[in-house]
Design goal:
With 238 residues, the chain is mainly beta. 8% of the residues lie in helices and 35% in strands.
């Protein structure tokens, strides 16, 4: 963006510089009714922390309308990837003014503490439960400065269960052993590659091997095995 020295700077102009040109400001502006000129902005050293403008859109920005904003070393514009296994991490927040900060999220599998803070620097301890499904899932953690209304949104994407090599097996399913052994309407399930129905320790409902078969009795017409959804309990001859 082309700029003229000492011309007045608008809210939109300053926001453009912050959002698109990585503008950081070093020290707080003097409490004054003067408007901020572009020379005022450009004369300052580029360094943390970020500054936030709270003023009417597209208006000249007075000094006293510019305040230090909350920020984190985690970039809010990118996704934070986490594995399918349960785990956690610490998200650092810098709150230069010590304003009241509220934290919330939009998914029950994402947990955090604390839920609020007025400390000038603190960590949000984020944890996530096991993702047992095959698909990735996404949650948004929202950090809100309750005085200025500034919001930081952190997107956390948790991977799904990875695919594994499998072999198909034709089996019948039933609520009891006798129902399974009747071998009515067999279906295709999957076992780890190289295993057979009777040697497998896991039974999958999809070829990627990352979704377990429903609980019940399964039979290949010769043997029946009771499956509880995570492991085999009993193997009997039909």
């Amino acid at each position: 963006m082309a700029r003229e020295s000492y011309s007045m700077i608008t809210y939109n102009d300053l926001r453009y510089m912050i959002e698109n040109e990585d503008l950081h400001l070093k020290s707080e502006f003097t409490n004054s009714n003067r408007t901020v000129t572009k020379a005022d902005i450009l004369a300052r050293t580029y360094a943390d922390p970020f500054y936030m403008v709270t003023y009417a859109n597209n208006q000249l920005v007075p000094y006293h309308r510019i305040t230090q904003a909350i920020y984190s070393t985690y970039p809010t514009e990118t996704t934070i990837p986490v594995p399918a296994a349960a785990g956690g991490f610490a998200l650092d927040i810098v709150n230069p003014k010590g304003n009241s900060i509220g934290i919330s999220d939009n998914q029950s599998w994402l947990l955090f503490s604390p839920s609020n803070s007025s400390s000038t620097s603190f960590n949000i301890n984020v944890s996530y439960t096991l993702n047992s499904g095959p698909s990735a899932r996404t949650a948004i953690l929202t950090v809100t400065d309750q005085l200025t209304g500034m919001v930081l949104n952190f997107t956390i994407e948790q991977q799904g269960q990875p695919a594994i090599p499998t072999d198909p097996v034709a089996v019948a399913w039933g609520g009891t052993q006798s129902e399974a052994c009747s071998f009515m309407e067999p279906v295709t399930m999957y076992v780890p590659e190289g295993d057979t129905f009777t040697s497998a320790t896991t039974l999958y409902s999809n070829s990627a091997g990352n979704v377990n078969a429903p609980a019940g009795w399964y039979s290949d017409g010769t043997y029946a095995r009771e499956w509880n959804g995570t492991s085999f309990l009993v193997t009997n001859i039909c």
